Automatic annotation (TrEMBL):
Gene3D superfamilies: P-loop containing nucleotide triphosphate hydrolases. Residues 2-245 form the ABC transporter domain. This is Phosphonate ABC transporter ATP-binding protein. Coiled coil: none annotated. SUPFAM superfamilies: P-loop containing nucleoside triphosphate hydrolases. Keywords: ATP-binding, Cell membrane, Membrane, Nucleotide-binding, Translocase, Transport. PANTHER family: AMINO ACID IMPORT ATP-BINDING PROTEIN, PHOSPHONATES IMPORT ATP-BINDING PROTEIN PHNC. The keyword DNA-binding does not apply.
Length: 282
């Protein structure tokens, strides 16, 4: 069980996250929606401890995440992987090495500096790339991949951490609809097959509805909706997004992309690799 308890984050006078409390059982897929500036990214960053709460506490089972320091904090950041809108890969490094960087928190600093990854780790990295259907890109510089491929590399890197939770901050905001669907399908697959809790900020309602069993709506730093897609009726949408600047009702199409067919695919791979281990130099 993961829990936020009365969490507030201030930046000077500004309250970015305001007294947020909720529980998330292990294995849920949660979408967080809300207008720009509602506090979605700040909340995710506090969960991963990239930012610290001004008040309140964050708990994972019997660990108080918000007070961790040193190795405890590093272990939490390993258990709680995060992916970003802009992928955050090292563009000049090849895909395989980018994925292997996900193992850094499992290793001693000396080994990390020497960049000595074990055979098992390389096999694990190739398996993660295969799972996401991009093993053929293993030796390419990450910066030469399409946005959708780069986000899949970032997911593979996150999987290398063997995380218990996966946080995603607008993972599809920079992608076209086809790649957005591939990435969302991958997150759902990880959630369902591994039972990893997924919390993803999304700027489009239809994606949240299609993929998330639970939707948390934020406005002005507060949670103003917490329920299922079915419960997210037009009144709830108004509460989350308010009215337009001209006072007009919010039109759901304003928050919409075109993932029209999110039906689950059994296999998200695009192609089979004839010699995936050879790609890893094995
Ligand atoms: N490092 C910071 N310093 C000062 N203010 C900040 C900082 N980070 C966030 N804020 C402010 O906190 C509020 C919430 O920002 P946040 O980025 O969490 O919103 P968001 O819901 O993720 O928005 P978006 O949809 O645009 O990504 C905003 O008013 C923002 O300006
Ligand atoms: Mg944000």
């Amino acid at each position: 069980m993961f829990r936020l308890k009365n969490v507030t984050r201030r930046f000077g006078e500004r309250v970015a996250v305001d007294d947020v409390t909720f529980d998330i059982p292990q294995g849920q897929m949660v979408g967080v929606i809300g207008r720009s500036g509602a506090g979605k990214s700040t909340m995710l960053r506090m969960i991963n401890r990239l930012a610290d709460p001004s008040e309140g506490s964050i708990h994972f089972n019997d660990i108080e995440v918000s007070s961790l320091r040193g190795s405890g904090l590093r272990n939490w950041q390993r258990d709680c992987a995060m992916i970003f809108q802009q992928f955050n890969l090292v563009p000049r490094l090849d895909v395989l090495t980018n994925v292997l960087l996900g193992r850094l928190n499992h290793r001693s600093t000396t080994l990390s500096i020497l960049n000595l990854f074990t055979r098992e780790e390389r096999i694990m990295a190739i398996a993660a790339l295969e799972r996401l259907g991009i093993e053929q890109t293993a030796l390419q510089p990450a910066g030469t991949l399409s946005g959708g491929q780069q986000q899949r590399v970032a997911i593979a890197r996150a999987l290398m951490q063997n995380p218990k939770m996966l946080l995603a901050d607008e993972p599809i905001a920079s992608l076209d609809p086809l790649n957005a669907k591939i990435v969302m399908d991958a997150l759902r697959d990880i959630n369902e097959r591994e039972g990893i809790t997924v919390i993803t900020n999304l700027h489009t309602l239809d994606t949240a509805r299609a993929y998330c069993e639970r939707i948390i709506g934020m406005a002005h730093g507060r949670v103003v909706f917490d329920g299922s897609a079915r419960e997210l009726d037009s009144e709830a949408v108004r509460t989350i997004y308010g009215t337009g600047a001209d006072g007009a009702e919010i039109d759901e199409s304003m928050t919409s992309t075109a993932i029209r067919n999110p039906a689950k695919q059994d296999n998200i791979k695009e192609s089979a690799s004839p010699t995936p281990l050879a790609l890893a130099g094995l």
